[in-house]
């Protein structure tokens, strides 16, 4: 997890204007498809405040695109240098998870309770073939996510954002208060039904 998120248009909160300025410029240059899946390109914010469009997933032979990094394994050789030297923020409007048996899975859409942007902890590296690539940090599920999935993105809030980019934040324990969840139409369906499912919680 997480393997699908979107960059749907949102009104930025007052405190997000500085963070979003460069992101919005990149979004304007993208096509109208704002659903982001593994290997897609999307904007990320670097520690110096610049915004770049990068490839989602570290490419590893035999593994394919590695789009998530477990926060408790960041001292491993695969992640150590990126976590120490190349942190980034990933702007997210909504992200999606699925639950239930194969063939009848339910789609769950997560977002900020006030409809603001979510900021995920990320890292990046240089790839000879794909250029700059990023991955998203994950942590153990909080009480909201736990019934659906055992892992969740490392969502950053408030002062955690500059602390993470500065290299000071090393532990990730998102609270349930920074998210809300609803049942949703599956964004991956080419011809989704016209009705909308009800709220999950």
TrEMBL record:
This protein's name: Abasic site processing protein
Record's keyword terms, sorted: Covalent protein-DNA linkage, DNA damage, DNA-binding, Hydrolase, Lyase, Protease
Pfam families: SRAP
Family: Belongs to the SOS response-associated peptidase family.
Gene3D superfamilies, sorted: SOS response associated peptidase-like (3.90.1680.10)
GO molecular function: lyase activity; peptidase activity; single-stranded DNA binding
Electron transport keyword on record: no
Gene Ontology annotations of biological process type: protein-DNA covalent cross-linking repair; proteolysis
UniProt EC number: 3.4.-.-
Keyword DNA damage attributed: yes
């Amino acid at each position: 997890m997480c393997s699908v998120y979107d960059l749907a248009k949102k009104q930025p909160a007052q405190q997000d204007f500085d963070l979003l300025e460069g992101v919005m410029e990149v979004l304007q240059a993208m096509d109208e498809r704002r659903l982001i899946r593994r290997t897609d390109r999307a904007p990320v914010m670097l520690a110096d405040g610049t915004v770049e469009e990068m490839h989602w997933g570290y490419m590893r032979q035999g593994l394919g695109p590695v789009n998530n990094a477990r926060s408790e394994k960041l001292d491993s050789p695969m992640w150590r240098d990126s976590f120490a030297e190349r942190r980034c923020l990933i702007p997210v409007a909504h992200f999606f998870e699925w639950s239930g048996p194969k063939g009848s899975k339910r789609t769950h859409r997560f977002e900020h309770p006030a409809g603001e942007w979510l900021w995920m902890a990320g890292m990046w590296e240089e790839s000879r073939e794909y250029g700059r690539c990023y991955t998203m940090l994950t942590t153990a599920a909080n009480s909201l996510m736990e019934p659906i999935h055992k892992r969740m993105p490392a969502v950053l809030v408030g002062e955690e954002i500059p602390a993470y980019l500065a290299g000071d934040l090393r532990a990730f324990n998102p609270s349930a208060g920074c998210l809300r969840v609803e049942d949703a139409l599956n964004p991956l369906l080419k011809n989704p039904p016209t009705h909308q499912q009800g709220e999950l919680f």
